[in-house]
UniProtKB/TrEMBL annotation:
Record-linked Gene3D superfamilies: cAMP-dependent protein kinase regulatory subunit, dimerization-anchoring domain
GO cellular component: microtubule organizing center
CDD domains on file: DD_TPGS1
The Tubulin polyglutamylase complex subunit 1-like C-terminal domain, residue ranges: 54-247
Origin species: Strongylocentrotus purpuratus
Stated name of the protein: Tubulin polyglutamylase complex subunit 1-like C-terminal domain-containing protein
Length: 250
């Protein structure tokens, strides 16, 4: 019994270390010490963890500024510039002015923290830089706007699936979902790669278009066996459509 209790406690400690990111920071700090071999390892560690604290505080402040207004409003442009300034300002005279990829990626993940992990990983592959790279304002703006627009696009997609869910059981005939997704893809394909244009294309799916493709799909469904698609699956397919149009930063 005592052994099982100890195992449980050890597991919970590991979970805590990963959840709080402490485990990652400790591993990173040890890797940096080995790579740099500083003469004063204690001072090196103190500076390293101080930079994490400062960066974390700045990311929180930048995120607070960005969520003050919706991305569709003019004031959002000023908020993006302010957030960029917050993250670019050095924490001390020892650091140079400018935004690095690591802080930028941390902000993106903060914005996307409620997005499904697989979708978050896919969008980060498109818009996130290397940790050491300098991030100019236009790249910062593109990535931040993409992250916020993606969240709205996924909400739209969830709403579309709910409209198709006539039985209110979370499942919709696959052929109906595929018909609407195809309509969505065709609508998005004709737009530019600007994130807001992709969102507007999805919103332009009008009732007549949806009803038309549903009628065709229902007719086809009656003559063939078809599976079903959950909301999560539908959103995943919709996100793929969105990401196909997003311009990668490299």
């Amino acid at each position: 019994m005592a052994g099982r209790s100890d195992d449980k406690n050890l597991e919970s400690r590991r979970e805590y270390l990963e959840r709080s990111h402490v485990g990652k920071w400790v591993r990173d700090s040890l890797s940096k010490i080995i790579a740099n071999r500083p003469e004063d390892p204690i001072q090196f560690l103190a500076s390293y963890f101080e930079s994490i604290r400062e960066k974390g505080n700045r990311v929180v402040r930048a995120h607070q500024v960005l969520v003050l207004t919706h991305h569709s409003r003019l004031a959002f442009e000023d908020n993006v510039a302010t957030a960029y300034q917050i993250l670019s300002t050095p924490s001390s005279s020892k650091h140079s002015f400018g935004l690095t990829g690591s802080a930028y990626k941390e902000l993106l993940r903060t914005i996307l923290r409620f997005v499904p992990e697989t979708i978050e990983d896919d969008v980060m592959k498109k818009i996130s830089p290397r940790d050491h790279e300098f991030i100019p304002l236009d790249v910062f703006h593109h990535g931040i706007l993409t992250a916020f627009v993606l969240k709205d696009f996924l909400q739209q997609s969830e709403g579309l699936h709910a409209c198709l869910d006539s039985q209110s059981n979370g499942q919709v005939p696959q052929i109906l979902c595929e018909a609407v997704l195809q309509e969505l893809k065709e609508s998005v394909t004709t737009t530019s790669t600007e994130p807001i244009s992709i969102l507007q294309a999805g919103a332009r799916l009008n009732e007549a278009q949806i009803l038309g493709c549903l009628e065709e799909a229902e007719t086809e469904a009656k003559s063939s066996l078809t599976g079903s698609m959950s909301s999560d699956e539908f959103i995943r397919h919709a996100s793929d459509i969105f990401l196909e149009k997003v311009k990668p930063i490299r």
